[in-house]
């Protein structure tokens, strides 16, 4: 174990998993080359990861006594070691996080300089806010955060996703409940009727905002309120966004939109697939997206087909056009695989990560696509760790993928990091 001093009195714990458990001869193959990121005396959860070349940035929340802060640690060798983490949020303890409300990090390459880093998170002080902050020195310091929603915006908001485009503009979407707040003010009964039914969902909306104050706007009403969103920036000012929507019949399917002009306008919403999952509540489990070098959009999401058959579905859309028929992603065999993420590796192959409960323990797993002349398949399936793991996220590096996840028991969790080939 080695302790690296950070700024001020902050210390950073950068340890091998064997050191966490006091083991002297950790030999499990699943733990090989695994490290952990943590802030001493705090639980570390809800990671996200982004990469460009060998540069990797991991963001997460470190919490104590119900208060959370957002930290970023950067690597310049493809995720094999990290510099001391830096706190991003200016207002101490303002981070509001859960597995579906993870802070997001994105990178923009800069010639002759470290990549620009943009971090977006859900904050809570006098209300709930969507905030973003940027670093132009490789994560050593961050500029003052920008609040994206309008001043005094009522109601709850969160479940944000963000991406930085090739022009350096940070784009963010989030779910917003100010329509619910207005309904409460009008009739003092904003929660009449079935919870999160179709009519109820019309009081919740998808919002979009570039990283400048006062530029937000509503895109679509009728969102499923507690599922994570997804956003990707492609070259030439192209943006893709996905979220879970409440369709007629209370069906909780994935919706999709795109912008071809850097967020000035968005296409009408489309439905990725009708899964047949009707539920009077939010699944708390949203979609994930990636775009490959050819411009193909890759989507993965969790669902219950016809309301009973838990699975992960994967589909693609050429250049963001209509999605093809989805295929099922093989998993470890539990009835409810959850929290999928997707990345495209250096060979252009999609890799999906998720978690599921096996033998009473939640495991983080992943599978790589096999792309040939026949249908796409995924496998073999492998776990990221022998330890309990949740909410894995992936990013490509030149010799593989960096996987990060919340590792260990809730009262002493750390951020597991592993390079997988």
Question: Which features characterize this protein?
Answer:
421 residues; four-stranded antiparallel β-sheet; 4% helix; disordered N terminus; six-stranded antiparallel β-sheet; 3 helices; 49% strand; single chain; mainly beta; Neuraminidase
Structure description:
The chain is mainly beta and 421 residues long. The protein has helices at 17-20, 178-187, 198-201, and strands spanning 2-5, 11-16, 35-38, 43-52, 55-64, 67-75, 86-87, 104-110, 113-124, 128-135, 146-147, 157-164, 170-176, 205-210, 217-221, 230-234, 238-247, 251-259, 270-271, 288-291, 297-305, 309-317, 327-329, 338-344, 350-358, 361-370, 377-383, 389-397, 400-407, 414-420. It has one domain: Neuraminidase (6 Propeller). It contains three helices and 30 strands. A six-stranded antiparallel β-sheet has the order 1-2-3-30-29-28. The chain starts with a strand and ends with a strand. The model is unreliable at 1-31 and 188-194 (pLDDT under 50).
């Amino acid at each position: 174990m080695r302790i690296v001093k950070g700024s001020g009195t902050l210390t950073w714990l950068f340890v091998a998993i064997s050191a966490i458990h006091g083991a002297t001869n950790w030999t499990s193959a699943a733990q090989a080359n695994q490290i952990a990121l943590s802030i001493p005396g705090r639980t570390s959860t809800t990671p996200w990861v982004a990469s460009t070349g060998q540069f990797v940035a991991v963001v997460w929340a470190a919490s104590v006594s119900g208060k959370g802060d957002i930290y970023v640690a950067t690597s310049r060798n493809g995720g094999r070691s990290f510099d001391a983490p830096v706190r991003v949020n200016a207002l101490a303890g303002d981070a509001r996080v859960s597995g579906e409300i993870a802070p997001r990090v994105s990178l923009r390459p800069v010639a002759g300089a470290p990549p620009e880093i943009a971090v977006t998170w859900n904050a809570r002080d006098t209300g709930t806010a969507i905030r973003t902050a940027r670093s132009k020195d490789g994560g050593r310091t961050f500029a003052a955060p920008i609040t994206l929603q309008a001043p005094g915006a009522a109601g709850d908001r969160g479940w944000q996703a963000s991406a930085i485009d090739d022009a350096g503009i940070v784009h963010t979407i989030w779910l917003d409940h100010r329509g619910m707040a207005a309904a409460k003010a009008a009739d003092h009964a904003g929660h009449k009727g079935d919870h999160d039914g179709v009519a109820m969902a019309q009081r919740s909306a998808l919002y979009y905002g570039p990283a400048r104050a006062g530029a937000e706007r509503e895109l679509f009403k009728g969102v499923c309120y507690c599922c994570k969103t997804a956003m990707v920036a492609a070259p030439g000012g192209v943006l893709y966004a996905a979220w879970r929507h409440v369709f007629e019949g209370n069906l909780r399917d994935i919706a999709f939109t795109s912008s071809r002009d850097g967020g000035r306008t968005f296409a009408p919403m489309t439905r990725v697939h009708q899964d047949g999952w009707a539920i009077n509540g939010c699944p708390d489990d949203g979609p994930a997206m990636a775009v490959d070098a050819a411009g193909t959009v890759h989507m993965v999401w969790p669902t219950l087909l016809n309301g009973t058959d838990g699975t992960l579905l994967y589909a693609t859309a050429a250049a963001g056009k209509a999605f093809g028929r989805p295929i099922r992603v093989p998993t470890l065999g539990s009835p409810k695989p959850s929290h999928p993420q997707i990345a495209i590796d250096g060979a252009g192959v999609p890799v999906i990560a998720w978690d599921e409960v096996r033998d009473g323990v939640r495991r983080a797993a992943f599978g790589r696509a096999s792309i040939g002349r026949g249908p796409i398949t995924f496998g073999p399936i492998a776990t990221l760790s022998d330890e309990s793991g949740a909410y894995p996220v992936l990013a490509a590096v030149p010799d593989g993928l960096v996987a990060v996840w919340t590792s260990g028991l809730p009262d002493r969790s750390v951020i597991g990091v592993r390079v997988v080939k």
